[in-house]
Design goal:
It contains 20 helices and 17 strands. By secondary structure, it is α+β, with helices and mostly antiparallel strands. The strands form six sheets. It has a six-stranded mixed beta sheet with strand order 2-1-6-5-3-4.
């Protein structure tokens, strides 16, 4: 219940700030002077009100759908005598304190539920009224009649005060009446399950809004308690992994409102919340040792290792390089393979830094028209310790390419798969991390033609557009998804239209040494627009104003957490507990997340819970099911397999689960046919008196039934899905 208490505190703080903002807006509007301050305040009020309304609506719905039914179910199990004292105390706290010991528990709880339902209906009317008043104020501010705007602002302030007063009383009543009943009549496991059911219907957007309220209105210790209890209720899911990805975005969105930030300790725990996934080793933090990530991205923001940033401003001599290599070789946190790869990456980094400095020096020595050849001194100063196309991590850069072209002899025509072509433009996020800025352009007339940053290079096949329909209608994408962008691999820097294309490329590579590592969808930072070939930070649409897409989205649906782009008409949502995108309208609409199964299930489906039911492989094809793009079929027993595998399995005459041997579906019609077959085929006389000890694989009970070669029917549930343990022959016992 700690999470609910903190959520109440979030509401109190948000309502107080909402009233304060509305009061300030009312004062600014009354001045009758148009200003940007009025526009900013109006937008802030509308945004804060929308978050409060959405979260409070979900909170009220949870009470009506889960809390009160759970209390009603519990009161049936308990005798009335054990509940009378609680009913008396709860009614004394909410009414005039009269003795109500003779009143039944069900009557008391029903009165409480009716009061809450009436409050929820009144609150919905108040929220709707304020929403209409905000629309009227917006229309008034856009028009010429400022007097009407002043009146609308005053009416909005009055309604906001009434809403805050009403919700404060409602939250107090919950803490004084509802929560004591929950704490008294429900066990800890039941409360844990109840919270899991409530959270399972909360979408990713709703969870983000709840965290927004927490960051804006709670102290750091209270935020930590709230999120910690949320993690406990969702243990066994991928919620913590989603939290690590979503919370940095939350911090950027809400820090301007005076809210704090989630601490780094809160976003990670000692154990991994993802089932079967171990924590990554922590990087060394020893000042005497130098560590280099062998697969760092040279072209991504802040990709240069910290110990090399100073080296990029000056030449690195052979003695300095040897000192760095010695530090890596004596690092106890690296094994032999890591040391070799790290040293190779270090050599390449130093070489790249020296080449960039040589290029700057050569540009200073050339004339303004750039027609003169590089000086012999500049050419001689370029180290030749590494080849241009033989880099660690396989990430050639534009500056190295230009240096190679200027110093070396012209190379023959590059093949389709040789990575020597830069994108048409290159955008990076600015220092604030909110806006993409141009750092390089292929246009010679652009001021960004010769950048200081290193521009990555790609092959012609990587930059070439791919088509979802094979090029018939020129629909951009791949066989898996329709989209107009490509993902840049966070490790190798190569371009793939989607992660499944990368997986297919990995499977086609026969040599394990050249095999690409799997594309981590959560680590994708950059994408390439297939219309204008602009490399840019991952986003919903191209940031290049000269792009021919005319500000069109890359796809109708895009997720900035797992970087899924899909331009089809199907409904898709991101589940914060699976931390992947699923097909459907959303949690709380047509799907819910079962915390025990750690899977999204249909809201109309009654299923048997099996812990981590999707984390294993399909029992037929033995392929992973959790991230599978194929439809799944949940069996009656709770186990899951691919729908195509189930169709093939059932077509072979199998009707039992390959894992637990229970019937996969309702087999009553099939068992009725077996009943008819048993009646029509009586047993021969020598088998009439024989019986069998059986075990029913559907109900799990044992029994003794008459033997029949058609089947052995369970006497408890009527199922023919039985196993014969022993055959009993009365004649043999007599002998």
């Amino acid at each position: 219940l700690v999470e609910i208490i903190h959520l109440h505190d979030c509401f109190r703080g948000a309502l107080e700030k909402l009233e304060s903002d509305v009061a300030e807006l009312c004062r600014e509007v009354s001045c009758l002077v148009p200003s940007d301050r009025v526009t900013d305040l109006q937008g802030r009020v509308a945004g804060r009100f929308s978050v409060i309304w959405t979260v409070f609506k979900a909170h009220s719905s949870a009470e009506d759908e889960f809390i009160w039914p759970a209390l009603k179910a519990k009161q049936v199990e308990l005798p009335n005598s054990s509940c009378n004292c609680a009913c008396e105390s709860s009614q004394q706290a909410n009414e005039d304190g009269e003795a109500q010991g003779g009143r039944k528990t069900s009557e008391s709880l029903n009165i409480g539920q009716e009061e809450y339902e009436e409050d929820h209906a009144d609150e919905e009317i108040m929220f709707t009224s304020i929403d209409n008043q905000l629309s009227n104020l917006r229309d008034a501010l856009s028009g010429a009649a400022k007097e009407s705007a002043s009146d609308a602002a005053k009416q909005l302030l009055k309604s906001t005060k009434n809403l805050r007063h009403h919700l404060m009383k409602h939250l107090d009543k919950e803490e004084q009446h509802c929560m004591p009943l929950v704490a008294q009549y429900l066990t800890k496991d039941e409360i844990h399950s109840l919270v899991g059911h409530i959270m399972g219907k909360r979408s990713s957007d709703l969870m983000s809004q709840i965290l927004t309220l927490a960051v804006q209105n709670l102290k750091e210790s209270e935020r930590e308690d709230m999120v910690r209890y949320m993690k406990e209720a969702m243990v066994g899911t991928f919620f913590e992994r989603w939290l690590k990805v979503a919370m940095p975005k939350q911090e950027k969105d809400v820090c301007d409102d005076g809210g704090g930030k989630m601490s780094a300790d809160l976003l990670s725990s000692e154990g991994s919340s993802a089932p079967g996934e171990g924590d990554k080793p922590a990087p060394a933090n020893d000042n005497n040792n130098v560590t280099v990530d062998p697969c760092y991205s040279k072209s991504s923001p802040d990709s240069t290792p910290p110990h090399l940033r100073d080296l990029s401003r000056k030449y690195t001599s052979a003695a300095e390089l040897e000192k760095l290599i010695r530090a890596v070789g004596t690092n106890p946190h690296l094994d032999t393979k890591q040391k070799n790869v790290t040293i190779q990456g270090l050599r390449d980094s130093v070489w790249t830094s020296n080449v960039r400095l040589s290029k700057r020096k050569r540009e200073e020595e050339t004339s303004l028209n750039g027609s003169e050849q590089p000086s012999a001194k500049a050419i001689a100063s370029i180290p030749s310790s590494a080849a241009y196309n033989n880099r660690a991590c396989g990430k050639p850069t534009y500056s190295a390419f230009m240096e190679h072209q200027a110093v070396c002899k012209p190379a023959p025509m590059a093949s389709r798969f040789k990575r020597n072509t830069p994108p048409s433009a290159y955008y990076k996020l600015d220092e604030t991390g909110k806006e993409a800025v141009l750092v390089w352009s292929s246009d010679p007339n652009s001021s960004k033609y010769f950048p200081d940053e290193q521009v990555p290079l790609f092959s012609a096949s990587e930059l070439a557009p791919t088509y979802h329909d094979g090029g018939i209608n020129r629909t951009l994408g791949c066989p898996h998804y329709a989209r107009s962008c490509k993902l840049r691999h966070p490790t190798s820097g190569k371009l793939y239209t989607c992660r499944l294309c990368c997986e297919q490329h990995r499977e086609m590579t026969t040599e394990s040494a050249n095999r690409e590592v799997p594309l981590d969808r959560y680590e994708v930072k950059e994408i390439l627009c297939m219309i204008c070939n602009t490399l840019q930070p991952a986003g919903e649409k191209c940031c290049n104003p000269a792009c021919g897409s005319n500000n069109k989205l890359f796809a109708k649906y895009s997720c900035q957490i797992c970087h899924l782009y899909d331009d089809s008409d199907k409904s898709i949502y991101h589940c914060p507990f699976c931390n992947v995108c699923r097909k459907g309208r959303g949690l709380g609409i047509d799907f819910k997340h079962c915390m025990r199964c750690n899977a999204c299930v249909s809201m109309d489906e009654e299923h048997v819970c099996i812990p981590q039911s999707l984390q294993g492989n399909c029992p037929i094809c033995h392929e992973s099911m959790f991230e599978s793009t194929q439809p799944l079929r949940r069996l009656k027993c709770g186990h899951v397999m691919h729908l195509s595998c189930f169709t093939t399995y059932a077509a072979s005459g199998n009707y039992t689960c390959p894992l637990c041997k229970k019937s996969v579906d309702d087999m009553s019609e099939y068992f009725a046919l077996l009943d008819s077959a048993v009646r029509m085929q009586p047993m021969p006389l020598q088998y009439v008196d024989q019986s069998s000890n059986i075990y029913c694989q559907d109900c799990g009970k044992m029994g003794n039934v008459s033997y029949h070669f058609v089947g052995l029917k369970c006497q408890h549930c009527g199922s023919y899905n039985t196993r014969e343990l022993q055959r009993v022959d009365p004649l043999s016992d007599y002998d």
